[in-house]
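[job 4471] stage=fold_predict status=RUNNING
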Amino acid sequence: MPTNFSGTWDIISNDNFESYMVALGIDFATRKIANMLKPQKVIEQDGDSFTIKTFTSFKNYTVSFKIGEEFDEVTRAMDNRKVKTVVNWENDKLVCVQKGEKKNRGWTHWIEGDKLHLEITCEDKVCKQVYKRSA
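[job 4471] inference complete, writing structure tokens
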């Protein structure tokens, strides 16, 4: 039985986000705003079907997918690019690959204790975020 990611998660750390956004080509002003945000994630999981909602005071973003099924995504939360996205299980981790204009792009989610870990990658930059389950 795969890990259950369902829940509400509040960010507690966000390492190397600036470099990740530079790799995406995000402008200076937007990076400054984004660095101050404290995102909250709401994950709804039904077997291998997921909806991940990310809420901030600046932008909200929702993505829905089924494990193993490629879909077209527009990364509105970040750089507004069109990518081909597929998410798969790798043991208890959700691993996403986004194919498009930027190389080596995607993310990995996993849970340790009451913390949700997220590594987001673009080219040679990796941002590490940690979220704590909301009470």
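[job 4471] summary: The chain has a mean pLDDT of 95.
[job 4471] exit 0
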